[in-house]
Amino acid sequence: MSALHKQWSQSRLFRILVIAAAAYALLRLMIHAVFLVGVLQGGSEGYDLQLYLDAASNLWAGRPLYPEGRLDYVEFYQYAPSYALVFTPFLWLPLPAVMVILTLLHIAAYILLYQQWGRIFQRLQLHRAGEVLAWSLPLWLVFSQFWADLGYLNIYVFMALLATLLIEAVLDEKLGQALLWLSIILQTKPQWAFAAAVPLLTGRWRFAVRLILLAVVAYALIVGIVMLAAGPAYGLRQYEDYFRFLINMRSNLVWRGPDAPFLGYDHSITQIVVYLLGVSPDTLRLATLIKLLLLLPLAAASLRCVQAWCRSGPADPSLSLDLAFALYLAAFIWLDVVWEVTYSIVIFTYLLATLERRGERLLAWAVFLPYAFLDLWQVLSVAVFGFDVIVPGPFILTDPAIYIPLVMIVILTFYALLVRQLWVKTTARERATSKAYGF
């Protein structure tokens, strides 16, 4: 990337920061290796890889994939049966090999995510965004959510890469690629399919309708493949349980109420309300009302986008990115379980490049940096105080994220900045159109 080479050659401070961040990344990889050894020796529990392996094993044994009734734990398989089927080949490998392969895939996906956004910014001629992406490399290397995702061998980084590929395909109206990435996303974490709504709001309705219809057909075909592989009756039952599980997830979750010593790592609106006011039908309804009120500004801005398209034609790519990122954050505002906001580092980069007001850029820095450096803080805490600061959960008692909903603060702040930016851009388009037609 030319911008990255330019930063490296011209800025001594940048070189120092990159070297320091790379040294920390190397240290974290060593810590990650020690953690995996602990898992192999039975000294660590709760990592997500085991959930995927158990699901694949259960699929072929004809056992239920999804829990029933109210849960007294928070680690459970949450994906479609097709994901368990795809994970089957890992059952044939020894666990250490699976861990190494997935670790390497995580690192590769994260590198591709960074490179992909450099390419997108360059192609859309968002030169300032490309420059910000280049000098933010040290932040990418220490970004807390990447290391958390790697530690648990979850799939958040993969979802961020898939969402990026979907955004690029949607912007270019490449139907085949968009269908491929959308179909994969729908088998894992459907909330990451946010980019599929962008064409509907930017006037590309024919492309949007074709994509949605083909995605429905593809989903039905994947269901059929699972039923053929695992047995029709069993496969159909698992999909019924899967959809029932998603619909009833709120009533099945374990909530941390006012009696809990701290909030914990679920920073959803619902969990925050319940932690402050207790668990009851009224507080759950209040949480839903708060979420609806928070989403109203985006609904209004989206309506203006549609009106702007009707008056002045298709939206520019920058407006499409604003919409995509706002829809991503809106999906996480609506969810009842919000552990992470992996895409925030991409949105942070974009906001720093596009926000015009200095105060807004400072606000973005202020809310994002504490979240970005959480991993560094956790490592230092354990190094200084030892494993005594880790309590069952696991929770790190010195971690500010178990007391303050940092994830939701980042989500709401970035959401507000993006919605305001959408409003300003659509207003400017309307004024330009009115002036052009002499209104």
How would you portray this structure in words?
- It is a single chain.
- The chain is built from 21 helices and two strands.
- With 439 residues, the protein is mostly helical.
- It is 72% helix and 1% strand.
- The chain is globular.
- The relative contact order is 0.10.
Q: Mind describing the biggest β-sheet?
A: 2 strands, antiparallel
Overall pLDDT, averaged?
A: 89
Measured by DSSP, the beta-strand proportion falls in under 5%
Shape: globular
Helical residue percent band = over 70%
Kindly name the structural category. mainly alpha
Number of helices: 21
Radius of gyration (Å): 22 Å
**Alpha-carbon distance between the termini?**
45 Å
Number of strands: 2
* Chain oligomer state: single chain
**Uncertain stretches:** none
Strand order of the largest sheet: 1-2
Task: List the helices and strands in order.
Answer: HHHHHHHHHHHHHHHHHHHHEEH
